[in-house]
Amino acid sequence: MMRMFFTAMILAVSAAQAAPTVPAAPDLALRYDRPAVDNADGWEREALPVGNGRIGAMVFGQPGREHLQFNDITLWTGDAKSMGSFQPFGDLFVDLPGHAAATGYARTLDLARGLHVVSYEVNGVRYRRETIASHPADVIVVRLTADKPGAYSGVVRLTDQHGAHVNAWGNRIHATGSLAGFVVPRERGNQWTPAQQPLSSNVMDYAAQVQVVNEGGKMTMEGDAVRFENADALTLVLGAGTSYVRDGAANFQGAHPLARVTEQVTRAAARPWPALQAEQENDFKSLFGRLQLDVSAALDATTAQERRALTTDRRLAAYTKNGNDPELEAQVFQYGRYLLIGSSRGPLPANLQGLWNNSLTPPWNADYHTNINIQMNYWPAETANLSELAEPLFGFVESMVPSYRRLVAESAANPSRDAEDGQVVETFLRKDGKPVRGWTVRTETNPFGFMQWKWNKTANAWYAQHFWEHYAFTRNRAFLQEVAYPLLKEVSQFWLDYLKQLPDGRFVAPNGWSPEHGPVEDGVAYDQQIVWDLFQNTVDAARELHQNTVDAARELHQDAAFARQVAAARDRLAAPKVGSWGQLLEWMEEKKDPVLDTPKDNHRHVSHLFGVFPGRQITPQRTPRLAEAARVSLAARGEAGTGWSMAWKAAFWARLGDGDKAHAMLRGVIATPGARAQEHKPGTEENTAGGMYPNLLDAHPPFQIDGNFGTTAAICEMLLQSHDGELHLLPALPAAWRSGKVAGLRARGGYEVDMTWRDGQLTSATVKAKPGNGTGTVRIRAGAKTVILKLKQGEAREFGAQLR
Ligand code: FUC
Q1: Using a 6 Å CB cutoff, which residues line ligand 1?
Q2: I need a labelling partner for 558 at 20 to 30 A (CA). Which of 50, 427, 567, 678 fits?
Q3: 0.85 surpassed by pTM
């Protein structure tokens, strides 16, 4: 009896304690009751990312020793002649002796506010530690408070792995260095970055500083560290920068960052925490707050209670096992948006790890891979209402083009066996012996105009798609005229010159490679579909410019003739073909091979479905026979994959109108890494071991951020599509999201769409022509119903069920 009473009391007490911590729906915070283990595995799986778009950190949250491993997106070794790799910048440590014995520990990353919080108790004192990455102040700030005065004693340290000079004065630690002469220590070399590197001309300067601002207590300098004793509260302001500039003409080397970093830190350190935090939150919300997704209504009350009470790592485990957690899916969706805001507001685009990297020799150099990865990073930018975040991609491509032109011209002048390919002689010469116009790229690229490994020639056209889409979504005419069209035109010129004519008159892309799969040959489906996309986008772009401009008549005339030439070439491209088992062919002729082009092929790249997504050559409505073949191919590829591969498959299924299949792919991508592979046929890690770590970062494996971004983009495609001449509302709604609402999705034509649905049926929708861009006539589809709308700029139209 006594014992039962006792148990009941414990239950009552713990329920009373737990109750306030169960968040209301929709819950947009990642929660943990343990800090991240402070080693490389903990970095990858447990630490949590903050980023201001240029600088960022992984936060470990140990009570006894806070650790921010930080990055600046521009800190790269390598140069115009060697690859190098994206580098870790430094580590900020706050040692708090005695705090390791903490109890009541909680760690959260609030996605809606861009705020990381650690709290715990030691010796009756409640401690709280907040971390933000502020875009407006351009610094990272850590705020340490306690509910008793004088509770903070410890040491702040800043370390560096590239030979910086580190010292402390004026309550500030300064690290200033240069990458000139830096080589990866022998013991740190690996398959991606061997220790023996070519001599590099890289002379990048870098600087980081952390100011320790105390309230109360005593501060002393201790060599290169800052010691604090009996402080009531502390604010740590961390700034970092490099001399990188996105300008090849300047050799990518600009002013020394020391003055800039000093000023940023000084200015921020002079402001109170509440002001810094409020400014950061407002700025962050101006992007993040544009889009809300709530599918938690699909969750029954008991399950919702259960899942919301779990920490994120346990919630992920429960989801891996049983699924049934649309709220976690929505959280992952928003996490992709959080991560893009964190890694794509600086001079360079998000790389393979966004901007978070702790290794001198990161996987694949944490580079810009052109055969899926960098593009996938930017798939959610337009649809998930973060259009401005695509700027770093555009600026990157534009600043690399002079180099790419030069490298192609060099290849044309010196036709030789491709060193990285072994067999193919890549001439880049036209039939008349002249070099082709324009530029293209290889698979691996760095931010100094260097590229290596195999040619991936249609990546130029894939890049061009992003430029066109930015216009399609924003209707920014100046961008179309000054930036997008010139690029589309030059890339189209490349392909007009480079395509090869078959005896029957069809055009094929010569010497192509379906990414990382099969032989190098002519007319590979991936190339054909991307060139089709390029030509279509170029024709559309020329028409847009044409329609609305009255001046510059001569140029227009030329563009009209050029557009006709491009349209004619588009129509002569060797077209997609259906194979013997109903599949879409990946190569021009069906392979006779034990694996390639058979239902046994589970390769992670599904490049021959580019025309389904992100392209628009193949759609269920316009090309039903090809869409069906794509479906057969996709089904055969299976449900397992690397992280990004599963995300891509989710998007394919969405474009094919199968919401349940798309959702089944989400089950794999949002799962303990490798879980999907175990359920299905296990394969190599390269093809089937993807998922998500407890910190919800995508596992290729290893950590690779494209899967996060791809998942967000795929979910957009499940809810709204606009690539086929109409706004298609809820085109691939899974049964698992039978009721819900979304506000702030973007569509081509400059529209913004809000929707609610119940029992799988649309109940209301608002379509708004965004002021300054959306305008004109648009067809709206929901199920079999369509209506045609004419909207003025800024006008919104509301619909009920059945589009009435
Ligand atoms: C492509 C993929 C790999 C990996 C790498 C970074 O080459 O084939 O799976 O994602 O990029």
Answers
A1: 352, 364, 369, 371, 373, 516, 604-605, 642, 644, 700, 704
A2: 427
A3: yes
